[in-house]
Write a structure and sequence with these properties.
The complex is a heterodimer of chains A (93) and B (142).
Chain A: H1 2-24, E1 33-41, E2 44-47, H2 49-58, E3 66-75, E4 78-88
Parallel strand pairs in A: 1-4
Antiparallel strand pairs in A: 1-2, 3-4
Chain B: H1 2-31, E1 40-48, E2 51-54, H2 56-65, E3 69-81, E4 91-102, E5 107-120, E6 125-136
Parallel strand pairs in B: 1-6
Antiparallel strand pairs in B: 1-2, 3-4, 4-5, 5-6
The chains are: A alpha+beta (93), B alpha+beta (142).
InterPro entries (chain A): NTF2, NTF2-like_dom_sf, NTF2_dom, Nuclear_transport_factor_2_euk
Domain NTF2 (chain A): 10-67
Keywords (chain A): Cytoplasm, Nucleus, Protein transport, Transport
C-alpha cells in the first residue's frame, strides 16, 4: 500500500512537471532526458536529449487526444526519462 | 559511432522481439486463453483499466473471468530499455493500439503497454511480461 502511494506520487508529480514545462518552455525538458533516452513520436525514433528536445520543440499541434508513455529511472537521486512513446489518439474521432 | 550502431542493433532486436511477441500474445488471448499467463513472469503485474492484478494465481483467475475476445492490433511501437535502467536485464518497451470486442460487449479501442524481459535457459530464450498496462481508449465515453 505504501509502495503504491510512492510510485503513484512519483508518476503524478512527474506528469505535472513535464506538461508544465512542455507548455511553458520545452527547452527546460532537457534536464529529464539522458543521452541514452529514446523517444518514439508517431512512429519516428529519436535518441539522446538533444535530438529529443529538437523534436519536442518543433511540433506545435497538441489539440487532438493523445497517449504518452514515460519510463522513469532514478539516477543519482533524480528521476530521468529513459523511454517515451507518443501517439495521437486518432481511432475514436 | 559504435554507440549508435549498438543502439541500432538493440532497437532492431527490440522491434523483432516485440512484433513476434505481440502476434503471439493476441493470438493466445483470443484462441488459447488458458495458456496466456505462461507469457507473464511469476512476479508480473497487470493494470487493467486502472485495476492492479499481481502474480500468477490472480492473473489466472482474472483471465478466466474475462469474456472471450477478438483483438485487432493497428499499431506497435517498441524501444529497447537502456540497461542503465534495468541492471543489465534485456528489456523491451512495447506499446500497442487497436480495437477489441469482448463477448457481450461493444467494440472498444484500446492501448496496451508491455515491459518484456528476456529469460535465457540453456536450451532457449523467451520474452516474458514483467509489466502490462491495459486501457480502453474510449473508456470515458462508454
Amino acid at each position: 500500500m505504501c509502495d503504491k502511494r510512492i510510485w503513484e506520487q512519483i508518476g503524478a508529480s512527474f506528469v505535472e512537471h513535464y506538461y508544465r514545462l512542455f507548455d511553458c518552455d520545452r527547452t527546460q525538458l532537457k534536464a529529464i532526458y539522458t543521452d541514452a533516452s529514446c523517444l518514439t513520436w508517431e512512429g519516428d525514433q529519436f535518441q539522446g536529449k538533444d535530438a529529443i528536445i529538437e523534436k519536442l520543440s518543433a511540433d506545435d499541434d497538441q489539440i487532438l487526444g493523445f497517449q504518452q508513455i514515460f519510463l522513469l529511472k532514478c539516477c543519482n537521486g533524480a528521476w530521468v526519462c529513459t523511454n517515451e512513446v507518443f501517439r495521437l489518439a486518432l481511432h475514436n474521432l | 559511432m559504435a554507440v549508435t550502431q549498438d543502439f541500432r542493433t538493440d532497437a532492431d532486436l527490440a522491434c523483432r522481439a516485440a512484433e513476434e511477441f505481440v502476434s503471439l500474445y493476441y493470438e493466445t488471448i483470443d484462441k488459447r486463453r488458458r495458456q496466456l499467463t505462461k507469457l507473464y513472469m511469476d512476479t508480473a503485474t497487470l493494470v487493467w483499466n486502472g485495476n492492479p492484478i499481481s502474480g500468477q494465481n490472480a492473473l489466472i483467475e482474472f483471465f478466466e473471468m474475462l469474456p472471450s475476445s477478438e483483438f485487432s492490433v493497428n499499431m506497435i511501437d517498441c524501444q529497447p530499455v537502456h540497461e542503465m535502467a534495468t541492471q543489465g536485464q534485456k528489456t523491451v518497451l512495447v506499446v500497442t493500439n487497436g480495437s477489441v470486442k469482448f463477448d457481450g460487449n461493444k467494440h472498444h479501442y484500446f492501448n496496451q503497454i508491455f515491459l518484456l524481459t528476456l529469460h535465457t535457459t540453456p536450451s532457449n530464450s523467451v520474452w516474458k511480461i514483467a509489466s502490462d498496462c491495459f486501457r480502453f481508449q474510449d473508456w470515458a465515453n462508454s
